[in-house]
Amino acid sequence: MTAAAIRHRLSGLALPVWGATPNEALAAAVLVPLVAHDRGVAVLLTRRTEHLADHPGQVAFPGGRHEPGDADPAATALRETEEEIGLRRGRIEVLGGLAPLDTATGFVVTPVIGLVAPPLSLSPDPAEVAEAFEVPLTFLLDPASRRIECRRRRGRAYRGVAFDYGGRTIWGATARMVVALAEALGR
């Protein structure tokens, strides 16, 4: 799928706004960065460092908590992306947002989809990000790449979709966002 096709398919998405959340301290946004390479589009992901209190070592989209100065979820996602991996907001074309989703840790996360033109010049913050890496969008859109798994967290079992790519597992809220992106793209 090309950048032009993605723009076309997502043209009906609304730009995200802050809605009512159970607790403003738990409002968050992430950027779903789609990198438009000549060879095809890739999704940029991060692996969080192991020492973090929330989601240590997990594969995630760059993003984080809403701060008072953030006008909307896109502002939060762009600010956090710049802080976490050094990808400047001026390099990102915001295409819209997906429906907010609740996480097992109590956050209400709004995914913001952004198109990024290479080359990328990233500088991951070593305090938060162990690595940044790309996964081909075609892989993530292929239903054969998905599997169902069960994980336990805080004594509760969670069943959900997961993807394995390059020795990494994409699961939880991040995998749910990938599935929502696939649905938005008509896949």
- How many domains? The number is 1
Structural class: alpha+beta
Count of alpha and pi helical runs? 4
Helicity, as a percent range: 10-25%
CATH class wording:
Alpha Beta
CATH architecture level-2 label: Alpha-Beta Complex
The value of Rg in angstroms is 15 Å
Q: What name does CATH use for the topology?
A: Nucleoside Triphosphate Pyrophosphohydrolase
SS strand fraction: 35-45%
Mean pLDDT: 89
Low-pLDDT segments, ≥5 res: none
In CATH terms, the superfamily is: Nucleoside Triphosphate Pyrophosphohydrolase
Terminal-residue CA separation: 11 Å
* Structural shape: globular
Protein model, in words:
The chain is an alpha+beta fold and 187 residues long. It has one domain (3-139): Alpha-Beta Complex (Nucleoside Triphosphate Pyrophosphohydrolase), CATH 3.90.79. It is built from four helices and eleven strands; from the N terminus they run αββββαββββαβββα. It has helices at residues 3-9, 73-85, 137-141, 172-184; strands at 27-37, 40-48, 59-60, 63-65, 92-97, 101-102, 108-116, 129-136, 146-153, 156-165, 168-170. Strands 1, 2, 3, 4, 5, 6, 7 and 8 form an eight-stranded mixed beta sheet that branches. Strands 9-10-11 form a three-stranded antiparallel beta sheet. The chain starts with a helix and ends with a helix.
